[in-house]
Amino acid sequence: MSEKLWGGRFSKTTDEMINEFQASIQFDRRMYREDIAGSLAHAAMLAKVGILSEEDRAAIDKGLHDILTQIERGAFEFSVELEDIHMNIEKRLTDAIGEAGSRLHTARSRNDQVALDTHMFVRRSVVEVLSHIAELQHALVESAHANKDVIMPGYTHLQRAQPILFAHHLMAYFGMLTRDFERFQGVYARTDIMPLGAGALAGTTLPIDRAFVAQKLNFERIYTNSMDAVSDRDYILEFLSAASILMVHLSRLSEEIILWCSREFSFVELDDAHCTGSSMMPQKKNPDVSELVRGKTGRVVGHLMAMLTAVKGLPLAYNKDLQEDKEGLFDAIDTVKFSLSVYAQLIRGMKVRADIMRHAVEADFSNATDLADYLVRKGMPFRQAHSVSGQVVALCIERGIWLLDLPLADYQKLSNLFADDVYEAIRPETCVAGRNSYGGTSYEQAAMQLAAAEELMAEEQRILSALETKQQIL
Ligand code: ARG
């Protein structure tokens, strides 16, 4: 006899290979806590509306808690024959407590059950991701503070462009992560909808109380359409989209760190504990963490594409295709969480070579815009100032010197607006301090950004602890 819970209308047992192929227990066992919490809430509701006796409910309660303990002790044997986490737990419960267990699935389908579990799992994972984002933001702010006077070249086209503060550069990533935090909050809001009670697709004839379940499991809203409830995977698509954008941010940061670590730049030095060597070349110290994060970005983006493709063209309501939603999702969750926490460590251990950055600014023409702005302040139209400064640069290149080295007499041959104060105007510190427009790289603006960041991080912590409390469902 098959141990299948749906075996009634079948005269043959499932082919062994098909069993293996269609099972999801290999991966959906990760949702055992959500599955148990969902069943406890469902049973409580069934008892409340009088479908289940108090006695049966108590037996179910105890049975489910025993199963929880067994799973957490590693003593629960999962069976592929029983397909998924839902039937593994239900079957074990019925084996343990008898008839009461077989009443648990009243007014419920695995279609709304799996939707419930996955919503709760994603919700919890979003909160974990949020806390890892906040942690990396902290690390960035710490480094920006510790290096708040460090000047480096800012780049466009990977060519030195204008002097900037290293802190300003780092805080650009802080801004990206702030949007990531907001995006994941949005994912949370649209995941926080309770699907249970949709049944297989059309609701149920039994007098259930969906609001009661929602309240027990801390859901803000309830799906208002049962077909939408069991077919909706938008929250997974949104999670994967937000995760992909986040990974793209980390990948861009990775690319910069990899460049900065190269001998050619030497702007930063990573902690030995965060790098690896080469099995052949004794001198090597490789930025593997950054390379891996850059590489793993492809994986997460791939999961998003896979899921979009899986959902596209699916008729309502549940189709087994939807079981494909989990592996990519779980992998994306793990990848994002791991990458973020590794990155926070990496940034904390990263030494900034202020001397080398400073030299890169000096041995360069990145102060040429400031030379043009100097002439503008003396009354010259910008287009003309741009051209004169270009001529100064050309002259310096010809002589193999930098703007600060050119004698005043030569400056004055190109414009009589040049005076002694030109040298002060094009010192790297002056260039940086002068860019004091809102959001610019000046010391003053950077200090404002850092102060605003502190406030924002405090607010994020408040949001986080409120969300963390809502995850206590067991
Ligand atoms: N393991 C299934 C999934 O992940 C659960 C739902 C199965 N429902 C069904 N009617 N076969 O989607």
Outline the secondary-structure elements:
Elements: H1 16-22, H2 25-28, H3 32-48, H4 54-73, H5 85-97, H6 99-102, H7 110-146, E1 151-156, E2 159-165, H8 166-191, E3 193-194, H9 210-216, E4 221-222, H10 226-231, H11 234-261, E5 268-269, H12 288-311, H13 325-349, E6 351-352, H14 354-362, H15 368-377, H16 382-399, H17 408-414, H18 422-425, H19 428-434, H20 443-470
This protein binds arginine.
Q: What is the tally of beta strands?
A: 6
Structural class: mainly alpha
Helix content: 55-70%
Q: Mean pLDDT, as a whole number?
A: 96
What is the gyration radius calculated from CA atoms? Answer: 30 Å
CATH topology of the largest domain: Fumarase C, Chain A, domain 2
Task: Note the quaternary state here.
Answer: single chain
Overall domain count = 3
CATH superfamily (homologous) name of the largest domain: Fumarase/aspartase (Central domain)
Low-confidence residue ranges? none
N-to-C series of helices and strands: HHHHHHHEEHEHEHHEHHEHHHHHHH
Q: Please state roughly what percent of the residues sit in beta strands, choosing from under 5%, 5-15%, 15-25%, 25-35%, 35-45% or over 45%.
A: under 5%
Number of helices: 20
Strand order of the largest sheet: 1-2
